[in-house]
Input
Amino acid sequence: MCDASPSAVEVSEICEKNNRNVAHGLAWSYYVGYLKLVLPRLKDLISEFNRANNNLLKCKETWKLHILLPVSCEIIDDLQKADSHIQYWKDLPALQLDRAGTKWRSYKQSIYTILGEDRKLNYCIVEYAPPLQSLYAMSQDESAAFSREDRLEQAQLFCRTLGEILQRSKECAGCYRLIVYEESGDSDSHFLSKEILRHIRQQHLEEYTMCEGNHESTNFLSTEPNILISDSDLPGPLLSDGF
Output
């Protein structure tokens, strides 16, 4: 009986034709070209920052890079313009490495203050994932042949692939928080700051739960503490109507 299933080469060609390798490649590039470099050194940089700033970042359970992953891929370069309750404060010390022929290439992360509904300030190291910006740009460029539906599908796949990569990474464990979200449909101008604060509160609760020796997950906490993202935070299946 003849095997009519496609060969590995044919499957690869089909995947490439349907843009299905885009998210996978972007996720791996983001990891090996940036996150794998900066995350293992992040806590040392925070400690260095604290020595020069009167131990300002006291809460060690939030000594993480909070990575914003909007499923829409719409990224505002100035976070302060995305939500007025998010304000730039200072940068962490820069990490400088020789990379691909560039001497002392600089990598730095920014610290923001997040204003809560209780009017208290929370300090947070936060930034968008740049590959999502690339997906958005592709969907706006006719020559890329990349539709809005493709963008949504690839954004979801990127978030899942990145989560899986980081979950397996021992070097990056406990150094990041993935914040996957879909923009609020009710025109809440402070949706983003509330979403970040929700994750900060979860981290406090996770730390308390671990200290109490209770490792059972709740309905919104991750079952894998090193990935720090719950299934409920990951985007669901592709919607038929797209964006």
In short: The chain has a mean pLDDT of 81. Residues 35-233 form a domain with the Rossmann fold fold (CATH 3.40.50.12100). The longest strand covers residues 121-128.
